[in-house]
Design a protein that fits this description.
single chain, 173 residues, mainly alpha, Rna Polymerase Sigma Factor, Chain: A, Arc Repressor Mutant, subunit A, 2 domains, elongated
């Protein structure tokens, strides 16, 4: 089946076409998602979310564009959004996130992640602990306050100072 017919079939909700897409692209998407080190979700979660998005937004598929390109773009956007939520300090440049340059991109991401952790290690111990709990483990100010016996205002101040310090370090490098 050619690309246009395949996408039109998907847009109509054809079950056999979705099954074909799933079987043909599952492994490729898993390999893309495996390149990233997520603290909460697994590569399978991203692939599942990608196929759910394709199904739920199938009417937006463009039959003039190759299906695999659209699928990889959806997966890429889901991963970028998650990484940005998980590590609010690391801003991935979508232009550097080409699916074809797998090894190169993983290197860039790992390098940035390593720099971030090095900068976090330069923070005073209390700031380091609070920043890590909030930015990397996604705990709320309230949850951190309960753990540390500090006020939410103090927590906010520590996070502000740590973020400011790390942003400055990132700009300097």
């Amino acid at each position: 089946m050619d690309n246009k017919k395949f996408i039109l079939s998907l847009k109509k909700g054809n079950e056999a076409s979705f099954k074909e897409a799933y079987l043909n692209y599952y492994d490729k998407l898993i390999n893309i998602a495996r390149r990233f080190n997520f603290t909460v979700l697994t590569p399978q979660d991203f692939v599942q979310e990608t196929f759910l998005r394709v199904y739920n937004k199938r009417e937006l598929l463009n039959e003039e564009v190759l299906f695999d390109k659209q699928l990889f773009t959806i997966c890429k956007n889901i991963i970028i959004n998650h990484v940005n939520r998980e590590n609010k300090i690391i801003q991935l440049d979508p232009a550097q996130f080409e699916m074809v340059q797998e090894d190169h991109d993983t290197g860039i991401f790992e390098e940035r992640k390593e720099k971030l952790y090095n900068f976090i290690n330069l923070l005073p111990e209390q700031q380091q602990k609070i920043f890590t709990l909030h930015k990397l483990e996604n705990l709320s100010y309230k949850e951190i306050a309960a753990i540390t016996d500090l006020s939410e205002k103090t927590i906010a101040n520590h996070i502000y100072l740590a973020s400011k310090f790390i942003r400055k370090k990132i700009e300097d490098h």
